[in-house]
């Protein structure tokens, strides 16, 4: 893995691909999640640094007509490619149409110095587009098919083969964490010299320590202990494990707030399964399923919580854990992926191995039963979170692209 340098050919215009989901979409709904935040905040930081950024997404049913000027230097463009209602699982069939639309707009608006693709579908499109435009390609996969399959969420062979082709040819492979970089090498034999660490940042204007009492008053919550889960409802994110841990905890005074909506082909079924688990454990009065919230509003929920639980099966990074820690809250996270670098066990929170609800309940009990420990976790977590900035994310990506542009001259 290399460290990005700021020397090299300047990147003044950047084409960003987010084919399957718009950065303007509400995180926590449909296919919108941490990646949407990443694309939006990184594009904003690049624009503020003087780079002209155009983000391309596929037109869905609710896509706004024409380009949307988000702020100076940043425009989001919806590209027509196939039926607006085409599900994500079938988007591979319209990649060529998407590429054609992006290329036409890029050429009509002054060209680009590089392409940054997000997720494997965009990476496939980006591979073709960058070759046609003769510019370097950077790819942020966000999740990897072989890693998901290894953790019980089987992905089609077509995806992993496509990822392998991109890994073999992209100029820059952006890793969100050291774990993400290791997965690229272990599962895809990626060239370490083309892997660059480009971790997400934190919008500190929103995600910073604040009053728990004030946050609870704003949300209309009582004084009982509150656990918080934030994420899309799909098997990968592990809401069922959070519910199971609450059941094992055996405390009628503890509440669980779960913010997010069903996502992906198994989302609706997972929501039904979670509701059945809640009913079977007689936790209806203790669990609140809350619709996805605007990103900045999440800071109020983080501050209101006693413990934020992140029970994902795998995470390339774990933005929820970082934002919660930045708000000064204890985080309990699965001992997987990028969460290992964000939750320092015994210092900023606790990592829990395995998926036994009893182990998670025991970890929750440790934090709820020791307010002084929880306070130490919160202080240390906020200090860690303060070191993550989107401006640094933007600088890392630009440095890597500029070096790549110099090599390909």
Task: Characterise this structure.
InterPro entries: Glyco_trans_1, Glyco_trans_4-like_N, Glycosyltransferase_grp1. Residues 33-201 form the Glycosyltransferase subfamily 4-like N-terminal domain. Its EC number is 2.4.1.250. This protein has 409 residues and is of the alpha/beta class. It folds into two domains: 13-201 and 389-407, Glycogen Phosphorylase B (Rossmann fold), CATH 3.40.50; 212-385, 3-Layer(aba) Sandwich (Rossmann fold), CATH 3.40.50. The protein has 15 helices and 14 strands. The strands form two sheets. It has an eight-stranded mixed sheet with strand order 3-4-2-1-5-6-7-8, sandwiched between helices. Strands 11-10-9-12-13-14 form a six-stranded parallel sheet, with helices on both faces. A hairpin with a 2-residue loop joins β3 and β4. α3 crosses α5 and α7 crosses α10 (298-304). The longest helix has 18 residues, at 390-407. The two termini are 22 Å apart.
How far apart lie the N and C ends?
Answer: 22 Å
Corresponding CATH architecture of the largest domain: 3-Layer(aba) Sandwich
Q: What count of helical segments does DSSP give?
A: 15
CATH class of the largest domain: Alpha Beta
Query: Which regions have little confidence, pLDDT < 50, spanning 5+ residues?
Result: 3-7
Determine the strand fraction and express it as a percent band: 15-25%
Number of domains: 2
Please outline the major beta sheet. Answer: 8 strands, mixed
Which structural class do you get from the secondary structure elements? alpha/beta
Q: List SSEs in N-to-C order.
A: EHEEEHEHEHHEHEHEHEHEHEHEHEHHH
Query: What gyration radius follows from the Cα positions, in whole Å?
Result: 21 Å
User: What's the CATH H-level homologous superfamily of the largest domain?
Assistant: Glycogen Phosphorylase B
* Number of extended strands: 14
Fraction in helix:
40-55%
**How would you state the average pLDDT, rounded?**
93
Shape: globular
With strands numbered from the N-terminus, the spatial order across the biggest sheet is 3-4-2-1-5-6-7-8
CATH topology label of the largest domain: Rossmann fold
